[in-house]
Structure formats: C-alpha cells, structure tokens
Fold:
Amino acid sequence: MFALIDCNNFYVSCERIFNPRLEGKPVVVLSNNDGCVVARSNEAKALGFKMGAPAYQHQDLFRQHKVISLSSNYALYGDISNRIMTMLQTFSPDFEIYSIDEIFLSFKGFSEWNLTDYGKVMRATILKGIRVPTSVGIGPTKTLAKIANYFAKKHPLLEGVYECKDAASILPLLKQVAVGEVWGVGRKWAEHLKVLGIQTAYDLAQSDYAMIKKKFNVILARTVLELQGVNCLNIEEVAPRKNIMVSRSFGQPVVLYTDLREAVSNFATRASEKLREQHSLASAVMVFVRTNPFSKTDMQYSNSVTLKFPLETNNTMVILKSVVKGLQQIFREQYKYKKAGVMLVDLIHGKIKQPDIFIDEAKMNNAKLINALDAINSKYGKQTVQFAVCGYAGAWKSTRNTVSPAYTTQWDELLVVYAN
Structure:
C-alpha cells in the first residue's frame, strides 16, 4: 500500500501560517513579476479564478471581490515544505518526495495497521505542528493513491483521508474522474484518448494494455495496469538532475549589456551551487536570451549558445567565464530583453569523470576555494561573498510588490509579537 500526502493550496496555506487574517478570504499567489496566478485559496477557486490566469487581466475582479493577491515567496514555501517532508518521513522508512507539496510513503509491512486512522494521525500532526492542511490518499498502487487523494480533497465528509483497499472497490468511482485527471496522462494524451472513446479513468482502466502500449507508449500502458491494481511504480530515491536551469523573466525590459551580464552571472552562480549540492559536474553550459514575445511594438529577438568546458566542472569561476563569453556572442543592442537563463548540461556524478593529462584539474576546479565560499554563504547567508560580475540585482530584478516577509529564513524578518 502507498499513501500520497498533498498539501492543500500550499502557497496560500504557507502565507496563512503567519497571517491568520487571510483565513476565510479569497487569496491568490502570483508568479515571478506578479504575472500569473499560481495558487488559489478555496474561496478564490469558488469565484472562478483559474490557474495561470494573467493577473493584469483580472485587476477589476480582484477589487470587486476583495481578492488578496500576494507575490510568490519561494524562500518561505521551500522552508515550510522541508519541515513538512521531514515530519512526514517519521511515519514510514520508505518515502519519495514528489514535489514541493507532495510526498509518497510506502506502507509495506503495515498490513495489520488501520491505515485510514494512520492517515488521520499524519494529517493532524502536520496541522498541529505547522498549521498546513493536507489530504491523504491511500491505495495499492501509486496511481490509485493519487486518485484516492483526489477524492479525499474533493469530499469533505472523508475528513481529508480516503483509503482504497483494492482496485475493485474504487473501480466504480473512477467513472467520476476525467481521464485528464489521471496521474501522468496530461492534456495532449487526454485529447488522443478521448478520440478513442476513453473519457474517464474508468475507461482507461478497462482499456487493453497492448493497444495502449502500441498507440502511445509503455508509460501510459503501465498506468492502465496501475489503475487495475497492478503495482508498476515503486518508491524511488531522488535521482540527480541531468540538467540544471536557472532563468527568470525581468521586472522591466533590460537593454544594457552590463545589466544582462549581471543577470546571467547571478543565474550561473545559483546553478553552480545547485550542481555542487547534488555532487555533480557539468560538461557544458547553455546561455539564452529573448525579448517579450507578447509585445506588439518591440522588435523580437531570441538566441542561445552552448559552450563546452575543457573538463567537467562545478567551479563557479570557470562557469562564469563561459557564461559571459557566451552572452557576448549572442547579445545584440537595441533590443528590450524580457528573459534570460543559464542551463548546465550533460551532468555526471562528481566521482565519475575522465582525467585529462594536459589539464591541471586541481588548479582549474580549485575545490578548496569554492568550498570555502560555500561554507561562508551557508553560515552567514546567501551572497555574503559573491563575484563582482554578479552586481547588486539592478534593472533585471523581478517585480514583487506584495511579497510577505521571509519569516523562517531571515533574522531581520522574523515575526515579532508585541505584548501590551
């Protein structure tokens, strides 16, 4: 048996932890540059606001319905997520963190337990300890646990927990689930499945495995088996990423090369830190820039370049030199740049690399210096020490007009309570 624990309206729930005045009110959280809706409270959902809706198109509705819109605060959300995941890992030795607000637990060896009650204990523990509401779905496969979670969230009488003991017991309920809601199906596959007459999760569960495998692929065919109660997807450890990208849309158009260089240098620095966190090395780096494709007045331009390193590296200095060199190649004046990014590609594990007798690896990667920088920034805060080319986040900085404080990660933004 598996459990999927999903945090309800996660970003909004994080905001409500430290601002109880948001309880019961329609709240939306916006993406970078306060662009689109990326999270909604139940009250906002009831008003009809959709995920991905451009905020500028709904300002009148926000005012009409007194909707509170907040800038995304990923430092806060990431820290709260880490606390929740750490707490939930105490309920099972086998777990898989699926996303910032979802985690799978394996209940292998729990056959004598009342898993519904156990799910309620997990839910109550998180609500009491962190004040974030969750939904718990339990099933014999990960896909059925996902669907059980769907029902746990949809029906209040279930008190946030629904257990599917076997595929036969949930099969009739699958008629209520659109095929596009099934984990791993997606919009495009859902459209193709509907052409074949497969409208619901029930239809997909009743479909022929061989036919689905032939017309689609083995991944969707495994989903069919999972819906039938055949376990095909086990708990997985988090695998190192094959590529690492850091990119951002700018709060205002960037026209100067120095500002764009500052932006991509910051992205490269952050990507390098992520690379070292997973103990990997990069073989090459890609740099890209683009203007605003939605502008009807600005000239359009986009370009990218990939540069290979002499030797696989995680050294920020080596990566920065290549990134700046790449930007020089693709930068064009007279354009208003809206977005840029850096991607480290062809990653390998730090212990698996091909030596080069013509390159002094110790000198090139300078591990002691980079480790010292990481240690300083870890102890005293991000960017305590940084490279001069990274500057001070000028014209390229994202717009966040209504961001909440970093209550849990910055000393100067801790919540303060005054007593009379």
Summary: The chain is about 35% helix and 20% strand.
